[in-house]
Amino acid sequence: MPDISLTAQFIALVVLLVLSGAFSMSETVMMAANRYRLRSLAGQGNRGARLAIELLGKTDRLLGVVLLFNNLVNTAAATLVSVITLEIFGDERWVLGIATLLVTFAILVFSEITPKVIGATHADRLAPIFAFPLSALLRVFYFAIWFVNLFSRSLLWLLRLQPREDNHTALSVEELRAMVLESGQFIPHKHRSILVNLFDLESITVEDVMTPRGAIEAIDLSATEAELRRQIATSFHTRLAVHDGDSEQVIGVLHQRRLLNDTLEDGFSVERIRGLLAKPYYVPADTPLYSQIQFFQENQQRLAFVVDEYGEILGLITLEDIIEELIGKFTTSMPAAAGRLAWNEDGSVLVDGSANLRELNRRLDLALPTDGPKTLNGLILEHLQDIPETGVSMKIAEIPIEVVQTQDRRVRTARLFRPLGDGGGR
């Protein structure tokens, strides 16, 4: 290259370093790009995103074109540096050694590290742009890339490592959960909470969110007509479980709206209530919530009685219970009941023994164990292995608990204290 001026050679060297940086950046950009975001852009008609997805579906060819030209450019740059060094300093080995170190440093800083950091930072934005020149190079130099990959595939075959043409892999539930939790400002907090709850529907059973049997409001047809009138008139539920003398046996479900329409025309009577009863619907206690939603839809039901393996009623679950598990409390069976479950100024809270542990954990930011009993009463009885007396205190999962009132062999009311180091408490 004696006929080419040093200025032109230095310009050529700079161009080679820039090209090397561009190929290094393109490699990082394509590998670090969010494929799901690219698919979204492609669905919106972005041609660059569509080309990027096609390239990522053929990783061996994509890497082949990038690395082929990257190495060619780096080799050319190193050779050009040697030529420039010989022309300026002559055949001095120590000068060639220093020149080699300098060009290595230049390639490392200006053509490798810096471009790759920039590419990784703006991968999603740059991938559709780099897809155009890479696709063009792949088409023009397809044979050369195929020839290089022929040896690469042969080596992979010997190592029993066969690449897949399509690198798209399905995400697991935990990976989806992590994506939702890390979505930041892209998904509002309330929406993230709903999505995370949705992922839990397969692991949560109806027993986890049901109303315990002791808290089910029911009417007994063996009671007097005056008692029935009073109980129905003061009920805040639209559907009531119905017994007939035996509180362990449900004979039907009464829809109060139907009762109202019927009694306005023909008057109130026990026999009329019997005629309006709907057949009770039962579900096993270990039914996942997601399956239960489908069962409600298929059977056109909104309420079901939860039974154990012996057919004994454990509690009651409604469609509203499942919806509230997803989006949080939006309705209540008692006026002004919402919002009562909160820490007092002294770091304590008075809780009903029938309170659901999952609801306590959610509302009070606790970590009570939920893999055993589902209510606070059950948790206390399991922990003590006995029916406690009023005033008994204990600590479960680092949460001090005091039994305030017991009735009929169960804890009716308990006081919880905020754990130490959690902004208050004892």
From TrEMBL:
Its main location: membrane. One of its GO terms (molecular function) is flavin adenine dinucleotide binding. Pfam families: CBS, CNNM, CorC_HlyC. Residues 276-333 form the CBS domain. The chain crosses the membrane at residues 62-86, 93-110, 130-151. GO terms for cellular component: plasma membrane. Keywords: CBS domain, Cell membrane, Membrane, Repeat, Transmembrane, Transmembrane helix. It is found in: Cell membrane. Residues 2-190 form the CNNM transmembrane domain. It is a multi-pass membrane protein. Belongs to the UPF0053 family. PANTHER family: HEMOLYSIN-RELATED, UPF0053 INNER MEMBRANE PROTEIN YFJD. This is Magnesium and cobalt efflux protein CorC-like.
